[in-house]
Design brief:
The complex is a heterodimer of chains A (402) and B (372).
Chain A lengths: L6 H17 L8 H13 L18 H13 L8 H14 L2 H12 L5 E4 L15 E4 L3 E8 L10 E7 L10 E7 L5 E6 L8 E12 L3 E2 L5 H11 L5 H21 L1 E2 L2 E2 L4 H29 L8 H23 L15 E2 L7 E2 H8 L9 H12 L14
Parallel strand pairs in A: 1-4
Antiparallel strand pairs in A: 2-3, 3-7, 4-5, 5-8, 6-7, 9-10, 11-12
Chain B lengths: L6 H17 L2 H8 L7 H10 L17 H14 L5 H14 L2 H12 L5 E3 L16 E4 L3 E12 L6 E8 L2 E7 L6 E7 L6 E13 L3 E2 L5 H37 L1 E2 L2 E2 L4 H30 L4 H27 L10 H11 L6 H13 L1
Helix pairs in contact in B: 1-4, 4-7, 5-6, 5-7, 7-8, 7-9, 7-10, 8-9, 9-10, 9-11
Classes of the chains: A alpha+beta (402), B alpha+beta (372).
């Protein structure tokens, strides 16, 4: 056991830090073009798709190097890459399950953000129970024809392509009748409508597909393999960004400490109020524990260990922590915590882990999303219970029924 | 960067597990609960043979020169077994001698401790039960040949079997730490019985206890920093033991939930139980990360050593409380019976919760790190 960073890691971090200090945009990126330009700059510097194999345009970087870059980006609050789902999920799925032709066709353009991607998984009636999805992909001989509705599609409005789960065989048990496709979003059969969240912005969308066309060559893996592929895809969403996440939390807590010096109760600064101090001490302890746990995950990844179902513990842990942290922030900030415009600097901007920059109010609202997306806390607990602790599954009628 | 135990550490862990599984079964823990001494001399000698008693002591004094991580590995297994005995207080006291002792003091105590012929403990708490080292109210008055100590100490672990007591007391030059003979005149030891079968406490009444000048550990008036260091080690060691107790409770709960049937199915198939067990695992894994991060930080002298020790104690103390409590809930009535072993671990975790500073105390230390 040795938790010190190696000299190579420290040197790498110093290089990366210099790069971000020199190159991070000083203003907020407004347009899609500006965001693409920034992405391209990150890509050229080797900060995009770092973990991808070299033959597909990645750097074959270690998990530690990836974590360091993400962490340094968080440290200066750099704008994120634009094609996060493409790079984090779609690309790795194609690398693992795709044909050589698919790899040649798609991967480079994902890295360079020449084509933007979204993920077409959830449906109005298939959330936690994703495998009950109803969108159909019918074999029309030369191509597949897709009809159905997807929801909670992040980045749907700007996406050129979507990684799609659709039912290709309704006669077999539900997990076995799903296939995975690459769907061109720029076609008449695909309509994208923005879906406004409780934050007021439209990060998500609804996607309606009516006889949309998918080429035969855009099936990923085998027919009926979609659920299996989606399981590995979901695993990529867990565990990876852990150091950067903690850095953003720490930055928020430090801003909270500043605010607690300026606000008072009963004539005494909040930071000197024993009740506030106890609560603050609890959250800070939990924050540090998140950091230690992130290092533990990173050290396992570094040794080539697959995150596996234990990554459900990480996801459950940080998302529930984030809610508690923002609840405390609201208690300390009082009404300033709810202000979406017009707050003085000390009470306005805060880093969030959501990707949506903003106020304490938006960060608080976003904290409610973390325990729902990418498998709700309840689903994570099922995974932990069944696949980590080996507890028996609940009897489920849908395991065998078509 | 490697958070996993190295080969030697894994070996230590598995041999500790095997030894305690064989020699520290619950029947022994229960039997020693009724024993006036409360510990097994045979087990102590075995632990000396295994090298546990000199684990973190310098090699020149018969130790292995290892650190807090290895000590925590053994303590976690001891928590898992609800081991009754003076292992940890002895290690803590020996560590103080190794850190601050003179060559004579080290030669007198460290080889004796490493070979299993001496036991020791630290008397942190005065009557006010304040863990802040500077709050110590026991007095040290200078005499011709040394000092006399007057005051009261409480919840001193395993003092009734100790060969030497480390007693902080305040003299004209400030807080000092003294090596005190338990048989010294003017010193009265009163056993205090707690609910944990394997925890023994003693109250000390010091009524002008004479100690010689060479009983002073470190420089006169300079003990505050040393005590703060010991408190950090105590906090991390307690976290390790609570972690072991919590993991035992979790393991027992999961095993029980797989076989106990109600409504025609194992209760572990119900989300009410399965989700509870998942939450318990989350807290146990986080406790592991917190405990061993802090142990490593102490060994490495990391700049966040003090913060990490407080985080470990604050987090693990509450996590172990919840996990061990939920274990009783998962078991239902059987978990509330004397004959079922669950309460041994539940009580061990509880006994350590207030020791070396409770969660609120350490949360305050944490806030001082963050906000001043």
């Amino acid at each position: 056991m040795d938790l010190s960073y190696s000299p190579e890691d420290l040197a790498f971090r110093a290089d990366v830090r210099r790069w971000f200090e020199a190159n991070t945009p000083r203003h907020e990126l407004g347009t899609l073009d500006e965001r693409k330009t920034w992405h391209r700059q990150l890509y050229d510097a080797g900060h995009v798709g770092m973990g991808w194999p070299r033959q597909y345009g990645g750097r074959g970087a270690t998990p530690m190097q990836q974590a360091i870059v993400a962490d340094e980006m968080a440290r200066v609050n750099a704008p994120p890459t634009i094609n996060g789902l493409g790079i984090g999920i779609v690309g790795p799925t194609i690398i693992v399950h795709g044909t050589e032709a698919q790899k040649q066709r798609y991967l480079k353009k994902i890295l360079a953000a020449e084509e933007l991607w979204c993920q077409l998984y959830s449906e109005p009636n298939a959330g936690s129970d994703l495998a009950s999805l109803k969108t159909r992909a019918d074999d029309k001989g030369e191509h597949f024809e897709v009809t159905g509705q997807k929801i909670w599609t992040s980045g749907g409005l700007i996406a050129d392509w979507g990684l799609l789960l659709a039912r290709t065989d309704p006669t077999v048990p539900k997990h076995k009748g799903i296939s995975c496709f690459l769907l061109n979003m720029r076609q008449p059969g695909v309509e994208v409508r923005p879906l406004k969240q409780i934050t007021g912005s439209a990060h998500f969308s609804e996607v309606f597909m009516t006889e949309a066309r998918v080429e035969k060559s855009d099936l990923i893996g085998r027919l009926g393999q979609g659920w299996e592929i989606a399981q590995t895809t979901l695993s990529y969403e867990r565990g990876g960004n852990s150091l950067a996440r903690v850095t953003r939390y720490a930055s928020a807590v430090n801003q909270l400490v500043k605010a607690a010096r300026e606000l008072s109760r009963g004539g005494r600064p909040l930071i000197d109020d024993p009740l506030v101090r106890t609560k603050m001490g609890r959250i800070y302890a939990e924050l540090e524990v998140q950091r230690y746990a992130a290092l533990r995950v990173l050290s396992a990844l570094q040794k080539g260990e697959a995150p596996g179902p234990a990554s459900s513990i990480t996801k459950l842990s940080y998302s529930e922590f984030e809610k508690r942290m923002h609840e405390l922030a609201q208690e300390i900030l009082g009404p300033w915590g709810q202000v979406t415009a017009g707050a003085p600097d000390d009470f306005s901007e805060v880093d969030t882990s959501s990707g949506e920059p903003g106020t304490w109010a938006t960060a608080f609202l976003w904290s409610r999303a973390g325990t729902i997306y990418a498998g709700s806390s309840e689903i994570q607990k099922n995974v932990i219970g069944e696949r980590v602790l080996g507890l028996p599954k609940e009897p489920r009628a849908d395991r065998t029924k078509a | 960067m490697d958070f996993a135990f190295n080969q030697d550490q894994q070996l230590l862990k598995s041999s500790a597990r095997a030894f305690l599984d064989e020699h520290c079964q619950s029947a022994l823990v229960r039997a020693l609960g009724d024993d006036p001494r409360g510990e097994s001399e045979a087990m102590w000698k075995d632990m000396a043979q295994l090298g546990w008693l000199g684990l973190a002591l310098p090699e020149t004094y018969g130790g292995s020169g290892l650190g807090m991580v290895e000590t925590a590995i053994v303590l976690e297994e001891m928590g898992r077994a609800a081991y009754p005995g003076p292992y940890f207080p002895t290690m803590l006291a020996a560590g103080a001698v190794a850190l601050a002792g003179s060559a004579e003091q080290k030669s007198r105590w460290l080889p004796a401790i490493a070979t299993g012929s001496a036991r020791a403990t630290v008397a942190f708490l005065d009557a006010q039960l304040d863990w802040e080292p500077s709050a110590s109210a026991t007095g040290a008055a200078k005499t011709a040949g040394g000092w006399t100590l007057t005051g009261a100490k409480h919840f001193v672990p395993w003092a009734h079997v100790a060969d030497v007591l480390l007693v902080p007391a305040r003299g004209p030059e400030g807080l000092s730490l003294f090596l005190v003979d338990p048989a010294a005149p003017g010193l009265k030891l009163t056993p205090v019985t707690g609910m944990d079968l394997g925890t023994r406490w003693t109250s000390l009444a010091l009524d002008g206890v004479p100690v010689r000048a060479d009983a002073l550990l470190g420089d006169s008036g300079q003990a505050a920093a040393l005590l703060a260091r010991l408190l950090r080690r105590g906090a991390v060691g307690a976290a390790a033991e609570m972690l072991g107790a919590a993991r035992r409770c979790l393991d027992m709960s999961v095993a029980y939930a797989k076989v106990r049937e109600q409504f025609g199915q194992p209760i572990g198939s119900f989300q009410a139980i399965r989700h509870r067990c998942a939450e318990m695992l989350l807290e146990v894994e986080n406790s592991h990360a917190a405990t061993y991060y802090a142990a490593w930080a102490i060994d490495a002298g990391a700049e966040d050593e003090a913060l990490a020790a407080s985080v470990a104690k604050a987090y693990v103390g509450e996590a172990a409380r919840r996990v061990c409590g939920e274990a009783i809930q998962v078991h239902g009535g059987i978990g509330f019976t004397w004959e079922y072993d669950l309460h041994l671990y539940f009580k061990r975790a509880k006994a350590l919760e207030p020791m070396y500073g409770d969660a609120d105390y350490h949360r305050e230390l944490i806030v001082r790190h963050v906000a001043g």
